[in-house]
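Record type: monomer structure entry
Structure origin: computed from sequence
Chain ID: A
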Amino acid sequence: MYLNSTMVNNNLRFAMIFALSFVGNALFLSIPLMLFLICFCSILLWKQQNILNNKNITVSLFIIAALLFFFTKNLMEPRAYDQFYFLWPIYLSLFIFFCSKEDIFGSFYPPIGITFFLGIFFLWGAMNYEDETGRAYFIFGANVLYRLFLFLSFLQIIHSNNTLLKLLFFLIGIAGVYLTGSRMGLMLAISLYSMYFLSPFNNFGNIQFKKLSRIFLIIPLLLVAILINSEEISAIYNLLLSSEGMASRLLMLSGGSISIRVDFLTSFMEHFSIFGTSSHVFNFFYFKSYFPYPHNIIAELIFYYGFVGILFSLIILFEYSKTFFRFLKKTKLPPIEIAFLIIFPSCLASGDIVDGLLVLFYSFVTFLIWCSNLLKRLELAYLINNKI
């Protein structure tokens, strides 16, 4: 009975994390689905204690006040490409108040059956459906699909102790990312898989010097091999680049959309405003109709929301640095933290804030937990020093 209860609970937790990670501003009866999701999650979690307490209430109130400012600013400056963009501060406020519970943020073994089924289901979809640009489009666009494949893949790679199971989900993940046709997806997949499988740490976070010595040996050998075969590698690269199809797209790292993004990222601070730049200024940068937003969550926060956007960005970067180092040490990250690990770097190259809501959900709640723990430690140190 206890086993069945645990299994059902883990399935519900996984379902909530999966939905919150990938839904964004999808609609249900012309209403944003995220509102339904947050209400549903709050009902399931209502008995549990919220992380808000007297230790972090001041920081919480500042965040909520800033979000209300963002909400009113978005109402006055709507985004034509997403009529419900103005709601994202409300999503985050509601999530902090009603859904920041241990049952979502705690660690649990992700269900193998569901992750495998979803992996195969979306792999089939990526193989059979594509948009006009040749990229996969199945329920989600390519920029969300590759995040989904990496999330499902790393759930089992990180938590499973079975080598064959790790290999199976690695193959599902890398195949799915490739089929999406996303350049950022392929680069992120190669980076994360390499970091994990070449990490000199074991599953207990202890460094293994044999692995470390192998890595130091492999790197110079690879560099020598590349130098020796540089002409052949260059010829193959140019051949693939000049061909049509997915390989050419994945290798094309300059021109088109990338050059527009780089132009914005290298010059948007010229328009910085303490309370955020007006949204119409963005048209100065993005003169192509299919590029109506910055495609970088940090730049978007700073550009639209000014000084407070900088503070919010620092919170995200602070929380991500903690997650990233735990990932390098092969710590068994909670499933919601695995989603955060993957979605944040993705949001630096594609999508807007609404596509990266999980980044905000995770980083702000864990930041409030950190503030609470920090205050507790300071109070304890004060009591010890004063021998109270």
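Annotation 1: The chain has a mean pLDDT of 86.
Annotation 2: The radius of gyration is 22 Å.
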